[in-house]
TrEMBL record:
It holds the Pfam family LRR_6. The keyword Transcription regulation does not apply. It comes from the Eukaryota. The keyword Repeat applies. This is Leucine-rich repeat-containing protein 34. SMART domains: LRR_RI. Keywords: Repeat.
Length: 417
């Protein structure tokens, strides 16, 4: 049995040595961590120092606070995760984190989402990962790293062979760095999940989608790919589908919030007829309409037996397409998760999905609608379920219990492949 450490006491001493006032929020969380049984058995813990915590008074972590914290943690082998989301860290804090990553040999998870880290701080973190051999999951979501920051990560992906999951969503990246990242992933064999959501693209030629498609033809390790808000149209979808005929590793494809219409969905439907690896397909906030939903239904009912989850949220689908999807679920027993809210429900739709739920074919926690009856008519109410329910937030206390309607990798974790 390992000796129980005293993180709080070490933190107080470090504040005194560095002449830095204590951060009451950090001190409280370290005291709670000292009581954690996982430490006693050296199983490893994640320090959740999130600035959006609502259960206790929050004093957001500054660059100086991080300097003290990183001086406490380098030799703390049981801290394997660090969640610093929604704080006020800047490039100066990124410098302290980069130094920590070069020295630390136990941290596997680092969450820096929604801080104020810019290009120079990103460069330091990316260069630290040239040497770091333990970090497996990095989230930079919401930091305005820009095109130059994305280029630093592209260079890192050519060297680092440990990182498995990289989240660069909402980071204001541009076309050049997306192409560079796609090129790096052509050779990288370690990254299994990457989020490239919402870049700043000013071209209508879909060059980035073409390069990502070329990457998918050659990449044999990527399991999860997020391409939300890429201004993707039917041409780009066709290029992706052509590539995925030759890809046998991708399990999760996220194409939400693009400009895909019923004509683009025809390519996806044809892909599903032959693809034997794709398990999760997110088409939320496109415009596939009834014809697109019908094409998907035919592929799922007659050919595909691999897809487990489908989201067609907010796609201007009405009763004809939604009923077709419900009918497909009656013959396809592998499709277990379906999300349909934001479309045009008629009575036939409400009845069809109500029957799926009542018969047990569709579990209540595997969809985002719930039937109720008023004056003899069935209606559907919205449930707060979805493929990425806990992408931006996680419960402040306890673990996520309902993993069926969870973010990203909950249906099949990356490590399982």
């Amino acid at each position: 049995m390992s000796v129980r450490p005293d993180l709080h006491q070490h933190y107080v001493r470090a504040c005194q040595d560095l002449g830095q006032p204590e951060n009451a929020f950090i001190a409280h969380l370290l005291q709670e961590a000292d009581k954690n049984d996982k430490i006693r058995w050296a199983k490893g813990i994640t320090l959740k120092i999130a600035g959006n915590d609502r259960l206790v008074p929050v004093q957001r972590v500054t660059d100086d606070d991080l300097k003290v914290l990183t001086s406490v943690l380098p030799n703390t082998v049981f801290v394997t995760g660090l969640d610093l989301r929604c704080n006020v860290l800047t490039d100066a804090g990124a410098k302290h984190m980069a130094t920590f990553l070069q020295e630390n040999a136990t941290l596997r998870y680092l969450n820096l989402m929604f801080n104020n880290i810019g290009t120079s701080g990103t460069e330091l973190i990316a260069r630290a990962l040239h040497r770091n051999e333990t970090l497996e999951y990095l989230r930079m979501t919401g930091n305005k790293i820009g095109n130059k920051g994305g280029m630093f990560f592209a260079s890192m992906l050519q060297i680092n062979s440990t990182l498995e999951r990289l989240d660069l969503g909402d980071c204001d990246m541009g076309m050049q760095c997306l192409i560079a990242i796609a090129t790096a992933l052509t050779q990288n064999k370690s990254v299994k999940a990457i989020n490239l959501n919402r870049p700043l693209l000013y071209s209508q030629e879909e060059e980035t989608t073409v390069h990502i498609a070329l990457m998918l033809k050659n990449n044999s390790s990527l399991v999860e790919l997020h391409l939300c808000k890429h201004e993707m149209k039917n041409f780009g979808v066709e290029r992706l589908c052509e590539a995925l005929y030759e890809n046998s590793s991708l399990r999760y494809l996220d194409l939400g919030c693009n400009k895909i219409t019923r004509d683009g969905v025809k390519f996806l439907a044809e892909l599903l007829k032959r693809n034997r690896t794709l398990e999760i397909l997110d088409l939320g906030a496109n415009r596939i309409e009834d014809d697109g939903a019908t094409d998907l239904s035919e592929a799922l009912a007659l050919y595909n037996r691999t897809l487990q989850a489908l989201s067609v949220v907010s796609n201007n689908v009405s009763g004809q397409g939604l009923v077709a999807l419900s009918d497909a679920m009656k013959t396809n027993t592998e499709l277990s998760y379906i999300y349909i809210w934001g479309n045009n429900f008629d009575e036939a739709t409400c009845t069809a999905f109500s029957e799926l739920i009542k018969t047990g074919r569709l579990k209540p926690n595997c969809t985002d609608v719930e039937p109720y009856e008023v004056d003899g008519h069935v209606h559907l109410a919205e449930l707060s379920h979805g493929l990425r329910k806990h992408y931006y937030w996680t419960p402040s206390c306890g673990e996520v219990t309902n993993k069926d309607a969870n973010a990203s990798l909950a249906i099949a974790a990356v490590s399982e492949y």
